[in-house]
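INFO  loader      accepted 1 record
INFO  loader      residues=366
INFO  predictor   begin
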Amino acid sequence: MDEEKKYNDENEGEDAPEEEPENNEEDESHDDSRKENKSSKINGWKISTFVLVILLAVSIFAGGVGLNFVSGNAVAENAVLFINENLLQGQSIATLDSVESENGVYKALINVAGQSTPVYITKDGNLMFLQAIPLTGELSLDNNQQNNQNDNQEPLPPADVPKSDKPVVEAFIMSHCPFGTQIEKGLLPVAKLLGDNIDFDIKFVYYVMHGDTEVYEQLNQYCIQEEQNDKYLDYLECFLTDGDGERCLAEVGIDMTALEACTAAADEEFSITANFEDQASWLSGRYPLFNTHKEDNEKYGVGGSPTLVINGEKVSAARDSASLLDAVCGAFNEAPEECNTEFESETPSTGFGWDTTSSNNLATCG
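INFO  predictor   done
INFO  writer      dumping tokens
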């Protein structure tokens, strides 16, 4: 009995016939189900992996590493935030018009006071710059192109401003540029203090950026300086308060008959209205020409508002009255007693009004 059991155990299944499955359709169904489950697992794995990659990319970018395939919107919006908080400080609002990748950096068009200006930002979001100079090809620029290259850049201080007995102080501005009005508010006390000790002129950048209001305001100011100069500083002080030129003409007592005759003649001489109406003549197809001081613009390479020139040299100075008085008084052969006056080192706000700001940035229109 034991030997028979041993034999059967050792040879179990060798001679037994194979059993046929009782339900083939059920087995096939199980096979299909297994395949579907396997496919579902693979697709789920792919989707999960893709999501993790995206989340990783976003987290790295948010951490400041910066990845080229991430949209430049986040980088550009961060630049806009920086401009609003650190440069404009509530005096105006910068917004993002567009952003694109160009030559390894982001090129963002940032709009301030209706003016869209290109700004370049590295793709890690750490550096922003306002001018790109091509390093290929020949550099051959006419006057207008040179001025465009200088846009948005405050001139570097010259090594030595020439001295004279009566310094010539020229400030090139646009009447409604918030940075132009800022330096005017800083210069006004200096011009009133020094009086006839200096030859002081407000001149205009060769194009306008703030519409017909700026065109006709600048025509008025040009003529007031030309024919009623003794009233100009008072007019300018009034105008810088709120930008209401019509009120200031009456308040200061400007001779309107003389003013209207002068502006009509200047309009014809410098083709002011003609240029404004001829869009084909506009700088870059966007900015009407304003040529009352065209030759001086070309002489000094003026490209933006404000540009300060003392004794024929571009000067970079902070826009508070104390700094501007130092810059002007440094150009005298022998400084007058008035140069010992101490102004408070408070920077005028941008735009109109007499508020002050803690920021002394050197931004420009143009």
